[in-house]
Amino acid sequence: MDNLSIFLCFVIGLISFVLISFKKRYTYWKDRGVPYLEPTIPFGNLPPRQAHFKDIMEPFYKQKKPGAPFMGAYFFRTPVVIATDLDFVQNVLVKDFSNFHERGMYVNEEDDPLSGHMFSLDGEKWKSLRAKLSPTFTSGKMKFMFPTVVDVANRFNSTLSEILETESELEVRNVLARFTTDVIGTCAFGIECNSLKTPNSDFRKYGSKIFDEPLHGSLVQLFLMQYPKIAKKLHLRVFHKEVEEFFMGLVRETIDYREKNNVRRNDFMDLLIQLKNGEALDEHSQKLGRVTFGEIVAQAFLFFIAGFETSSTTMLFALYELALNQDVQEKARQEIETVLSKHEEKLTYEAVKDMVYVDRIISETLRKYPPVVNLIRQAVRDYRVPGTKIIIEKGTAVFIPDFNIQRDPKIFPNPDVFDPDRFTPEQIKARHPMAFLGFGEGPRNCVGLRFGRMQSRIGLITLLKNYRFKPCSKTPIPMVFDEKKTNFITKVWNAFENREIVNRLLFGFE
């Protein structure tokens, strides 16, 4: 037998082995009596080309089986769980959290220190950081930061008014991101980054790079999660090197300056410095142990990306819906004017709390456009699903498709209709507690939800108080999402009407 024949036999044998291996693996859910969708080699149930995470999950949720807690799926050749039953979701997130306290995200602190933030960490490291950072987001801390956010909102309004004097079209996603960037820059780093006046500031430059120029698309991100050991051996990163260098330098300079000059600002960075030095955060809390410089940078980075992007995107979609629903917009504006009249026309912490309809608008926006379209948990030990003989094996990823849950007509009738009254106390009480997962649920819910709501409320109140929003011929109905982005990011031309100057602007999308 010549060398060519030997080589061809080897190739044929290898291909046959791989195919047999995949086919055997793809009987995993069938052998366990779990409903599943037929996979294809080599992607499993993943699409062969780029797709949005919400679209990957949609077929499973639509074809869920009555009485089944979940659907089985394959990401490449790895079996994963797609939760389709709300009781099962509650078990995973809350009741049996001890079995599912990990996310299984890709973390590579050696090659990519910024990846070691609390959202992605698991085990004792996550537990320790969560305990240390939770006190930084109490209602008392939010009340202290409130005037700072209002001050930035006032500068936001002034900048917007100046822009409207000369511009006829305005890309609102950008200006909203500049507002939230300035808020986070001030509250997290104690830095006046002035993105509102300087759109090309370093904060905006690197913030945009994170979301608009991600290193990896959704399929590669799933690969990183499924095969972290291979990814680490390849020294794969999650974030750009220049982003890491910027935040490392920024945090180091901030800490050095404050410690050398004994500067205290009572902001997020101050609290992280206290934790670095092993101090208690207030007279009522105990010392929780030190955090390292690397941990400080990663958590400050998380606060930045979560704080500026999710809040600006939430406000963006709220404005889109308010433009399409003038009755809702006017009702919110009337509430704002009524409440402010009772508080001497001042936007106080108490006044914002009284604006319950504005808060319902935020909740309804998060229902239609959740910042994270799938919650992810990973089994830390073998888990028997209550009421069944099904065992979810240790290490299996559980995907909870909150976008699909929150658009389910059986849970939210007419789900495409924007209706803030879905979030009255009576409506909330009548629904399953897992029907709305805008901030996650259970011990791993969003630690900064109070700050996120506060920032979004103040931003929307400022805008509604001063402007009216209307759609135009370029407004896409329904909304179109960028499939290259893992969350709901789209470039938006929002144009609106200044209530005093009556300056009509385009409200559309590019």
Automatic annotation (TrEMBL):
Originating species: Hermetia illucens
Molecular-function annotations in GO: heme binding; iron ion binding; monooxygenase activity; oxidoreductase activity, acting on paired donors, with incorporation or reduction of molecular oxygen
Residue intervals passing through the bilayer: 6-22, 296-320
Pfam families: p450
Annotated GO CC locations: endoplasmic reticulum membrane
Entry binding sites for heme: 446
CDD domains: CYP6-like
Compartments in which it is found: Endoplasmic reticulum membrane; Microsome membrane
Alphabetized Gene3D superfamilies for the sequence: Cytochrome P450 (1.10.630.10)
CC cofactor: heme
UniProt family annotation: Belongs to the cytochrome P450 family.
Keywords tagged on the record: Endoplasmic reticulum, Heme, Iron, Membrane, Metal-binding, Microsome, Monooxygenase, Oxidoreductase, Transmembrane, Transmembrane helix
Membrane topology: Peripheral membrane protein
Protein name: Cytochrome P450
